[in-house]
Write a structure and sequence with these properties.
The chain is an all-alpha fold. The protein folds into 2 domains: 1-43; 54-95. It has 4 helices and no strands. It has helices spanning 6-23, 28-37, 57-70, 74-92. Helix 3 (57-70) packs across helix 4 (74-92). The longest helix is centred in the last third of the chain and has 19 residues, at 74-92. The chain is elongated.
Length: 95
């Protein structure tokens, strides 16, 4: 699941195709030099908003246990699950 908007993904794919077609014509030394000078792509994400939710203590304990087994913070696991569920519901709804 990509966090980038579709228009940006499309633009990046187009740019990658242009680079791939032009890089074939270049000498390996020139390609190395160009790649050394290239900038990294940075996708800026909007800041997250804190939210308070009242949960059952047993649910919190189970959530922490599952997160620990997966090796991620429990708040990140909650965020992932919530995002997945929102995507499921969004595709099921017709606006």
């Amino acid at each position: 699941m990509s966090k980038l908007p579709q228009r940006i993904r499309t633009r990046l794919k187009r740019e990658a195709q242009i680079w791939n077609s032009s890089i074939v014509k270049e000498a390996p030394e020139d390609v190395s030099r160009l790649l050394d000078k290239a900038d990294f792509f940075v996708a800026h994400r909007p800041s997250r908003q804190p939210v308070s939710v009242r949960l059952d203590p047993f649910d919190i304990a189970m959530l922490k246990r599952i997160a620990r087994k997966k090796g991620i913070p429990f708040s990140q696991l909650m965020s992932m699950w919530l995002h997945e569920k929102i995507d499921q519901e969004k595709t099921a709804l017709t606006f």
